[in-house]
Amino acid sequence: MTCPVRIALVGCGSEKREVPSPARDLYTGPLFKGALREALALAGEERTAILSAEHGLVHLDEVLKPYDLHLASLPRAKREEWGRATAGALVERFGASTAEVHILAGAPYVEALRPHFPASWRVVVPMEGLTQGGRLSWLKRAREARTASAAAVIARADFVAPVSREWLAESRGRQLRYFLPDCDDRVDPDFDFATDTRSAKGAWETEQYAHQLYPSPNFDGLLVSRMEAESPRAKARRLAELGVHRYLRVPPAVPVLGDCGAFGYASEAAPPFSTEDMLAYYTQLGFDMGVSLDHIAAVAASDEDRRARYELTLQNASDFLRGHRAAGHAWQPWGAVQGWSPATYAEAARQVVAMGYHHIALGGLVMAPTEAVLAILQEVHQVVPASVGIHLFGLARAEAARAFVALGVRSVDSSSPLRRAWLHARENYITLDGDAYAAVRVPYANGRAAKSLAGETLAKAQRLEKSCLEGLAACERGPVPAGLLDALEEYEALTLPGRKSMRAENQRTLEAQPWRTCPCALCQRHGIQVLVFRGNDRNRRRGFHNVWAWYRLLGKALRREAAPVVALVGGSQLDLFNLGSVTRAPAYAATTGGVA
Q: What percent of the chain has pLDDT over 90?
């Protein structure tokens, strides 16, 4: 496996602004602008640079004064000196052992640079031999071809994922439905793992969601939090234009739940939205269910603030349901419930149900241990009729699935299975038997993890990077290659200094080869690449796999195909399959209910 660094170089131009300007703005001629546009499409911002006769290798945002110097006008010896210094600066900047350099400049620049590049670097001069007019025509054709190619990529990515009648029937029949929070988790469907290149610039138009990559969704619905949906502005505009289902590329049959995203403003004195605003938001974007405006009480700094947030959430729930009924909205209203102890959650739930809600949603519990959540649910269960559904925000815990169901919970949401793919220190890949493996870390030698590397150290890191990637690719064809674990350990020490060695975890993952036996669509298609910790397109695919596996583990737990237990206070155990016989809450002494 080879991973050459792609670099693009743009020749400067004679037409310039008359005032000091960033290099990308200093040169104003159509040839320079067209070449810069093509270079950025080829290599991106970080790997594009400008060739200046006066200044050598120039960063795009380096401020330059106007000057008047042409490389072709310099004596041969001066051009030779310029080429040696500029090529050296390029090698120092990128340090790549293998590189593909695209030079979008005239012949004097190419002739001066080419002899001084490392032998392992491949030089591409797409406009070689063309006149100035010919280069302008070439750039125009390249832009047109790129536009057509982008349109084809968008057509492949932007489609509504169908769902089958079988999935609908199974999803609607689940005792506990799982909602996956949307956090813009998408990947390039045509990412080239061999060369580490994307098929198009990362954007909503060109990337796919997990449910577009699997035969059927690995969830029962999606959750969109307004705090997440409001940023960036381009996302908010597209959501408003398309509606929430089309934006997420799911048909109307897939339920989409909306909430405010209270953790996003938990440190603020008051929510940034109003009840009237939330009613309009849910209606205009086409949500199926919407949760009333809440403010997390458990994280309040004082008893007074905690009580104020608690009362505000209750008042908002009352106003929300009244406004919903007055407007005759078709979507389903859910009442938010906050608290800081079993008693306060139960009292809030009682009041919200009395308002007339058929669904309530308990928030502020995402950091609470499972035993604390169970204590709260047992109190809430006493005051909430069986006809009222309970949703738990951020608490999709498979080991407690049957306990939740026994206590009236009908739906949960969590992004934890997805996020553990890159946030967990050593358990990044979930299997269908509930085991977990570490992903093998091979960060980019030119990436943020190794940003302090330079010169010979960087060159060494890049040689090791290449060796590690080639060794991992060989694992697809047979046993772990000799020396791979050593290379991984040495590369880790260079790029992730101070981190505890992952050698034992890497060995376990590579010897077990869990991707070989996984039937999920991504593991079947990409193999070991799903287990490589390296960049968005690998890491999020692993997260998608985790959601696939977790959704099935949740189903197993609900069908009693396993008998998980939860550790309670004092080290005792509670059999979750027999929770219905438990009449008293477990020990729960903290004044804040173990939530804050």
A: 74
Distance of CA 476 to the CA centre of its chain: 26
Closest CA to 523 of 502, 543, 501: 543
User: Any idea what DSSP says for residue 99?
Assistant: E
pLDDT of res. 113: 94
- Separation of alpha carbons 537 and 517, rounded Å: 21
Dihedral sign of CA atoms 83, 85, 88, 89 in order: negative
> Is 413 in the active site?
yes
DSSP reduced 3-state for 565: strand
Q: On the CB side of 474, how many CA atoms lie within 13 Å of its CA?
A: 14
pLDDT at residue 103 is higher than 90: yes
Question: Are residues 337 and 363 in contact, defined by beta-carbon separation less than 8 angstroms?
Answer: yes
Q: What does the pLDDT read at residue 7?
A: 92
Tokens of residue 333, six digits: 């209203």
The one catalytic residue in 196, 319, 413, 537 is 413
Question: What's the whole-number mean pLDDT along residues 62-78?
Answer: 93
Band of residue 559 on the pLDDT scale cut at 50, 70, 90:
confident
**Coil, strand or helix at 406:** helix
Q: What angle do CA 376, 414, 395 make, to 5 degrees?
A: 15
Q: Does domain 162-414+563-581 have CATH number 3.20.20.140?
A: no
Q: Counting Cβ atoms within 10 Å, is residue 478 exposed (0-12), middle (13-18) or buried (19+)?
A: exposed
Residue 391 φ/ψ, nearest 5 degrees = -115, 140
186 CB neighbour count, 10 Å cutoff: 23
What share of the chain has pLDDT > 70, as a percent? 91
Both tokens of 388, joined, read 């009222």
25 is catalytic: no
Per the structure block, which two tokens stand in for 495? Answer: 């790029």
pLDDT tens digits along 199-235: 887 789 999 999 999 999 999 999 999 999 998 888 9
Q: Where are the domains of the chain?
A: 5-152, 162-414+563-581, 422-558
Quote the tokens at residue 314: 């209750």
Helix 275-285 crosses helix 303-327 at what angle (to 10 degrees)? 50
Residues 219, 414: contact at Cβ < 8 Å? Answer: no
* Cα distances (angstroms) measured from residue 288 to each of 158, 331, 333, 339: 22, 5, 9, 26
Determine the Cα–Cα distance for residues 5 and 446; give it in Å rounded to an integer: 9
- Tracing tokens 């949960």 back to the chain, one arrives at 412
SS3 561: coil
Cα angle 358, 364, 368 (rounded to 5 degrees) comes to 115
Q: Look at the alpha carbons of 275, 276, 281, 282 in this order and tell me if their dihedral is positive or negative.
A: positive
The CA distances from residue 272 to 230, 265, 275, 312, 480, in Å, are: 11, 8, 10, 13, 54
Tens-digit pLDDT profile for residues 128-178: 888 888 899 989 988 887 776 666 666 667 889 999 999 999 999 999 999
Catalytic residue among 182, 259, 294, 319, which?
Answer: 259
Residue 263 in 3-state DSSP? helix
* Rounded distance between C-alpha atoms, residue 438 and residue 83, angstroms: 46
